UniProtKB/TrEMBL annotation:
Keyword Ubl conjugation on entry: no
Highest classification ranks of the organism: Bacteria, Pseudomonadati, Campylobacterota, Epsilonproteobacteria, Campylobacterales
Family, similarity comment: Belongs to the ABC transporter superfamily.
The protein's name in its UniProt record: ABC transporter ATP-binding protein
GO molecular function, a single term: ATP binding
UniProt cross-references to PROSITE patterns, sorted A to Z: ABC_TRANSPORTER_2
Ranges where the ABC transporter domain occurs: 2-233
Record-linked Gene3D superfamilies: P-loop containing nucleotide triphosphate hydrolases
Organism the protein comes from: Campylobacter portucalensis
Length: 249
């Protein structure tokens, strides 16, 4: 689905990304990691067509990023919320169908799509709730639903679990895994490898150059599922040590 060939990008004469070669297919759950300033967000913006490469080629299903953009669902890291504006959860998700509006109105089909997307992310009971009243993790679920509602072939996510506790992160990763298994591509920037490594089929490390790691999920245990189902608490300590209080792992 995505092919990047000999990509270079920089501001003025300073290269941020150098000699990037990269292949991705929609069955992959790809996490992009790397240090701050290493070029992760720049790489994502290039794939979205928000930036143009200095040289090299980017193709998504054989098209340029700008040609393919309607097939991409994008979930940014932060979306400012005006607490005084009474925007409902359903209205936010319907924004994913904004190109389908007819005479300024959403159709019954659009609303059914939005409600289905909310159900997929576990937010079906919150459709009438004001978006400003939700927690950070709940809002991220809503933004993922908006991306799903757009009929995107692939979702690009920029640190969707930032500032969310470990349990909330696992819940969002589980949602993304299910979306990926339904046939949509997942490409996300992640700040926490401890969780990402349990879900990704590939991990790309970017620090000016790109190094791809293949992850064999067949070798993974069900440690995260055990933590979520059997423990009232878990945090980064359990994730790093790969050990819980009942000593089953």
């Amino acid at each position: 689905m995505i092919e990047v060939i000999n990509l270079n990008f920089g501001y003025d004469e300073n290269l941020v990304l150098e000699d990037i070669n990269f292949n991705y297919k929609s069955s992959d759950f790809l996490c992009v990691i790397g240090p701050n300033g290493g070029g992760k967000s720049t790489f994502l913006k290039l794939l979205l067509g928000l930036l143009n490469p200095k040289n090299g080629t980017i193709l998504l299903d054989g098209k340029t990023p700008k040609e393919f953009c309607k097939n991409v669902g994008y979930v940014p890291q932060h979306i400012p919320i005006n607490s005084t504006f009474p925007l409902s959860v359903l209205e936010v998700v319907l924004m994913g169908r904004i190109d389908q509006k007819r005479f300024g109105f959403y159709s019954k089909f659009d609303k059914e799509k939005a409600l289905k997307a909310l159900k997929i992310v576990g937010m079906g009971d919150f459709s009438k709730r004001r978006i400003s009243l939700l927690s950070g993790g709940q809002r991220q679920r809503v933004y993922i639903a908006r991306a799903i509602c757009s009929d995107a072939k692939i979702l690009f996510l920029d640190e969707p679990t930032a500032s969310i506790d470990a349990r909330g992160q696992v819940e969002i990763y589980e949602i993304l895994k299910n979306i990926n298994q339904s046939g949509k591509g997942i490409l996300m920037i992640s700040h926490d490898l401890n969780i990402a490594i349990n879900y990704a089929s590939k991990v790309a490390y970017i620090n000016k150059n790109l190094v791809m790691h293949e992850i064999d999920q067949g070798k993974k245990d069900n440690f995260l599922a055990h933590l979520e189902n059997s423990h009232g608490h878990f945090c980064d300590v359990e994730l790093i040590l790969k050990e819980c209080s009942c000593k089953k792992f």
